[in-house]
Amino acid sequence: MTVRPSIKIGFIGFGTVASGAIKILLKQKKLLERRIGTTFEIAKIADRDLKSDRGIPLPEGLLTSDVTEILQDPDIDIVVELIGGTDHARGFVLDAIAQGKHVVTANKALLAMHGEEIFEKAADKGVDLGFEASVCGGIPIIREIKEGLAAEKINAIYGIMNGTCNYILTKMRDEGCDFDEVLKEAQALGFAEADPRLDIGGGDTAHKLAILSNLAFGTPVALKEIYTEGIEKVSSIDIAFADEFGYDIKLLAITKRVDGEIEARVHPTMISKDTLLSKVNGVFNAVYVDGESVGELLFYGQGAGSLPTGSAVVSDLVDIARNITSQSSGRVPSAAFVPSEREALRIRPMAEIQSLYYVRFMAQDDPGVLSKISGILGKNNISISAMIQQGRKIGGSVPLVMMTHMAKEQDLQTALSEIDQLDCISGSTLLIRVEGEESS
Ligand code: HSE
Questions:
Q1: Ordered domains of the chain (ranges, CATH)
Q2: Which end of the chain is more exposed for a tag (fewer CB within 10 A), N or C?
Q3: Residue 310 and residue 20 in contact, taking contact as beta carbons nearer than 8 Å
Q4: What tens digit of pLDDT does each residue of 183-225 get?
Q5: Catalytic residues
Q6: Cα-based angle 230, 234, 238 (whole degrees, multiple of 5)
């Protein structure tokens, strides 16, 4: 084997993901050498915490609290940014690119917010930017969209991309657990974000969707254009009703082409129990892709965790090392399309989407109530396909559930704001969008 200079790596951040990546670099040293034709050398690791034992034996002097020892070291080829957050991380990533270094990051928030700027700078400098670990941890979905599916006109992507939410919804369904209790368990498993509101509020999923949608359709997708609703309002009663109608409730990230525009949205969604996505339980993630030629694909695996996410980081290091050794850096554009060929497509506002809906009212169980509700729905072009009223409570509120035919979001929202003013309605009405075929 020709002996080439080693590829020198500087890690910024030595937390869970960095520990996983470093463990893999050490444990799979020989395997990786056989794959890249040279060696990886961890040149420096910068972190504020120089004391904690990560269970990884490292040579003296490798750890530093000074990031400039990495950014300004001309011998370091690849900077791996794993500190999270967006302010410092953006600065470090842009600095590294400016120094002509290749960059690997797992930072979904950074790419969702500043991706365009970072993609542009990396292309200008001709350096590689790897971010496989930013979406769904160990599932190689970024590489599939950029390379495996390069022949595809992608029509739609549906993803279960937050393990914490999927764990909570699975436990609520299977064990009837209470939301707060299960959230605590999910946090203890170490999957939840430092601020779990990012998980349950859908923000973490929206970050990942912004990245995937951008790559799939070759268009910038601003985070603020992604409608984002979390799982906080989903209750056991809705999960039970969904079951009666043959559905499961998942926090879905949805992006699809519709009449030359793009839909990009994150919200609790009812999907048929017959779909593979509905079988994705617990902390697992899955991404369904519909390609024009290839048809339907499903990618399933661990969306978080030290080793699965570390594996994605190392896969980027391998890609970059191969490009360095074959002098073909920048071969695959960061955003999957040649920069000049990307086009700004309109992201369809939520009010304009069409969907099937599940609506749960808390209504007085009195004569005439149903006709008032259905009258308002009818006036707003909403047609009901099925209905369940649970229990009988003279003079009290009962859940009244309706499934609609295909309807426009704006029409439904207009109807619901009028219905929620009725004296016979108590509490606010819950709406869950339903994906799938209209039942005939
Ligand atoms: N908080 C995320 C999750 C971790 O629960 O899936 C991976 O992004």
A1: 4-138+306-341 (3.40.50.720), 150-302 (3.30.360.10), 353-435 (3.30.70.260)
A2: C
A3: yes
A4: 888 888 877 887 889 999 999 999 999 999 999 999 999 999 9
A5: 208
A6: 150
